[in-house]
Amino acid sequence: MNVSIGCNAHRFDLPHYRGVLSGNETSYHWVIASFSNPSVAEFVTALNREESYKGDLIERAFEVHDLAVKEFRKQNLWKLPEAFVAERRNEGATKESREAKKEGDAQGAGSLLDLKRAIAKKILKKCILCERRCRVDRTVKKGTCGVGLKARIASEFVHLGEEKEIVPSYTVFFSGCNFRCVYCQNWDIAMYPDSGEIIDHQALAKRIDRNFKSGVRNVNFVGGNPDPDLYDVLETISLLKTNVPVVWNSNMYASIETMKLLDGIADLYLADFRYGNDECAKKFSNVSNYFEVVSRNFIEADRQASVIIRHLVLPEHIYCCTEPIMKWVAENMPDAYFNLMFQYRPEFRAGEFPEIARRLTYSEINEANSLAKRYQIQVMG
Questions:
Q1: Nearest to residue 123, comparing CAs of 264, 257, 233?
Q2: Which residues contact 210 (CB under 8 A, 6 or more apart)?
Q3: What percent of the chain stands above pLDDT 90?
């Protein structure tokens, strides 16, 4: 169903993402791999040399990071022609990044992308990549999500079943998740973090590049949930040789630190908004403070990049979840792409909860569509 409303077309049109696909803009990661300044280069070196976790060092690194991202945004460098950006990548954006490159890897060890990589790697020593903030040293044991030092890939393939705006999409499914959804639709991936193959950054980057050259429109990082695997994603992205758009397919329970690190990485957020209140989130996914965290992250994602909001409608949850979410979207992101999803099926442990132990009724589907009209939500056709 496609509801027509008077929204701002430039937002609804996923401007940045479509700009990259059309060749009028450059993917963010392609630019920040050569964007640098002396402070960025200095903190890349400092973080890579420091073996232990030092909170004050990471805090200062984030200050430098945030200023660099602000400058990157101010300069609108992703609107430069791709050939010009590629030349900058080859040469190094500054003398400082070229000097750092001599001591670092082939990507130029003083870039903003390198700083993101260094921060994400250090955070693994006391993990706060999601809002569970378990602070586990994932270099020696697994976090609350079940993910350890190295990401595992459950599967990867050219996906044709996602939203029409993004297919064909080279989709990478990571094992493990920071949610414990009793109705998990991908429980065989999300609930078994030890399944799949250990990531090989170089090999994955080559497969992404090869498929992009063959016609896929993006690389789509999903799971499970990709947030615990941010460091491995950044490592892979640093090895890409193509201007492939990055889709971040998340449950949006990321920490603010992760959202900062994704600024300049994700060209499109393909993001779930599951619950309209904290009680349902706790009952069905065992997460706390859900609505505040996720709504905050949607505001941040909308500031950074193009966004598609996904809402999977649950049986018996039209008025406690679907309506509050639509109300929030109408007030805060009124011109957002909104995918109202009716394909719920009672998977995993859903049978233990009578209200969700069935598929949706036609009445529930019609009521959700009526609410979309009432709140003037732009539902994707």
A1: 257
A2: none
A3: 81
pLDDT digits (tens, 9 = 90+) for 328-351: 999 999 989 999 999 999 999 999
pLDDT digits (tens, 9 = 90+) for 32-65: 998 999 999 999 999 999 988 899 999 999 999 9
- Parallel/antiparallel/unpaired status of strands 169-174 and 219-222: parallel
Under a CB-based contact definition with an 8 Å cutoff, are residues 256 and 264 in contact? Answer: no
> What is the C-alpha to C-alpha distance for residues 127 and 135, in angstroms, rounded to an integer?
4
Domains of the chain plus CATH, in order, are: 9-374 (3.20.20.70)
**Could you give the CA distance from residue 285 to residue 279 in angstroms, rounded to a whole number?**
10
The first and second tokens of residue 226, run together, are 């990709």
**Cβ partners under 8 Å of residue 26, min gap 6:** 20, 77, 78, 79, 80, 81, 82, 85, 243
Give the model's pLDDT for residue 88: 67
Degrees to nearest 5, angle at CA 256 with 142 and 16:
115
Decide: 163 and 340 in contact? Cβ < 8 Å: no
Alpha carbons 151 and 31: distance in angstroms, whole number: 25
* d(C-alpha 120, C-alpha 136), whole Å: 14
DSSP characters over 78-99: GGS-HHHHHHHHHH-SSHHHHH
Q: Can you tell me the distance from the alpha carbon of 45 to that of 122, in angstroms, rounded to the nearest whole number?
A: 12
